[in-house]
Design a protein that fits this description.
about 300 residues, alpha+beta, Phosphatidylethanolamine-binding Protein, six-stranded mixed β-sheet, four-stranded mixed β-sheet
C-alpha cells in the first residue's frame, strides 16, 4: 500500500521500515481550529490495512483492542502558536495504561485549542435577576481547609484526588441579623470551556442556624436519600450535577490552565416553597423562585489547575 501524502509529509522516523514491523502502527491525530468550530481527525496507518478499514480500526483502538502495540502519536494544531507538533512513543504497557496515555493527549490537545474559552463570570448564578438589589457580596466566607478566597486547592479536594469538599464557614454582618430564614449553596466553574458555567453542586433548604459546612456534612445520608432525591448528613438537600452526583469537586481539563471554582452562599429572607417545584429543583427553577427573597450572599473561590507532567 502506498503511503498517503500526509504520511509522506511526516518525519522520516515515522516512515522508517522498523515502524512497519508486526504490531507497530502510526496513530496520527490532527486538531484544527476554525471559525466553524473544531475538527478532530484521527488516522491509524498500518501497511497491512486498507484505508477503507480505518473507521473500524479507530473504534477498535478506542476499545483497547490495539493498544497493547507500540504507537507514535502526532499532534498538529492549526491557529495555536504555543502548541507545536509533539511526538511521543507509547512503550509496550498494559492495555488500560496505553489507553489512558492516548486519551490524555487528546484531552490536552483539545484543552489547548479551547484555552481562551473561559471567564463566563457574567453567567454565574449570583449574576441573575434575583441579585439585582444585592449586586455585591455581603457575607464573608472562609475555608479552614484551603485558606482565604482565591487560594489554590490541593489535589485531595479535586476529582483527581479524594474529591473532598472544602470546609466553609461564615458569619453574618449585623445588617442581616435575624433576617435569614435559610441558605442555598452552589459551586460553579466559569472557566470551563462550555457556553455557561457547569454546576458542581447545588444544596438547598440549609438551616438558618448553620454557620459552616464540612466534608462530613456533604456526605450522602443513605438512610434518608432516595434514588432521585439526595439528602445529605448536614440535614439539607441537594440536586444532582451533570454526572448524576450531589457534588463533584474541581476537574479542569488537562492543559486548560487555572480554573476558578465559585462556592456561592445565598441567604434568603423567606423560605422557598419547594412543593411548587420539581421533586429535585434545578438551578433554573431556584433562580426564578428566589427573586425578591435574597437578603445577602457571599462567595469563596478556590483555584485548581491540572498541569502536564
Amino acid at each position: 500500500m502506498q503511503p498517503s501524502s500526509r504520511c509522506r509529509d511526516q518525519p522520516r522516523f515515522a516512515r522508517d521500515r522498523r515502524s512497519r514491523s508486526k504490531g507497530v502502527g502510526l496513530l496520527y491525530i490532527e486538531l484544527t481550529s476554525s471559525s466553524n468550530g473544531i475538527t478532530v481527525e484521527v488516522q491509524l496507518i498500518r501497511v497491512d490495512l486498507l484505508a477503507s478499514e480505518l473507521p473500524k480500526i479507530i473504534r477498535e483502538l478506542l476499545c483497547s483492542v490495539l493498544l497493547s502495540r507500540v504507537y507514535t502519536v502526532f499532534f498538529r494544531v492549526s491557529k495555536f502558536d504555543t502548541l507545536n507538533i509533539k511526538r511521543h512513543h507509547l512503550r509496550p504497557a498494559p492495555i488500560h495504561q496505553a489507553k489512558m496515555e492516548v486519551l490524555q493527549y487528546l484531552e490536552y490537545g483539545l484543552a489547548r485549542l479551547l484555552y481562551n474559552l473561559r471567564g463566563h463570570d457574567a453567567k454565574l448564578f449570583i449574576k441573575g435577576p434575583a441579585f439585582t438589589d444585592v449586586p455585591e457580596p455581603t457575607i464573608e466566607i472562609n475555608s479552614p481547609d484551603c485558606g482565604p478566597s482565591n487560594s489554590t486547592m490541593k489535589l485531595e479536594y479535586t476529582q483527581y484526588g479524594e474529591d473532598r469538599f472544602p470546609e466553609l464557614d461564615w458569619s453574618l454582618p449585623p445588617t442581616l441579623a435575624g433576617q435569614v430564614k435559610e441558605y442555598l449553596l452552589l459551586c460553579e466553574d466559569p472557566d470551563a470551556p462550555l457556553p455557561s458555567p457547569p454546576t458542581h453542586g447545588l444544596c438547598y433548604a440549609i438551616s438558618a442556624s448553620t454557620t459552616n459546612i464540612t466534608a462530613s456534612d456533604m456526605a450522602l445520608d443513605k438512610e434518608k436519600s432516595t434514588r432521585k432525591k439526595p439528602v445529605l448528613k448536614g440535614g439539607f438537600h441537594a440536586s444532582k450535577n451533570i454526572l448524576g452526583k450531589h457534588y463533584g469537586g474541581p476537574r479542569p481539563p488537562l492543559g486548560h490552565g487555572p480554573h476558578r471554582y465559585f462556592y456561592e452562599l445565598i441567604a434568603l429572607k423567606e423560605p422557598v416553597d419547594f412543593t411548587k417545584l420539581s421533586e429535585v429543583p434545578t438551578k433554573k427553577e431556584l433562580a426564578a423562585v428566589i427573586v425578591g427573597k435574597v437578603a445577602g450572599w457571599g462567595q469563596w473561590v478556590g483555584v485548581f489547575e491540572k498541569q502536564w507532567k
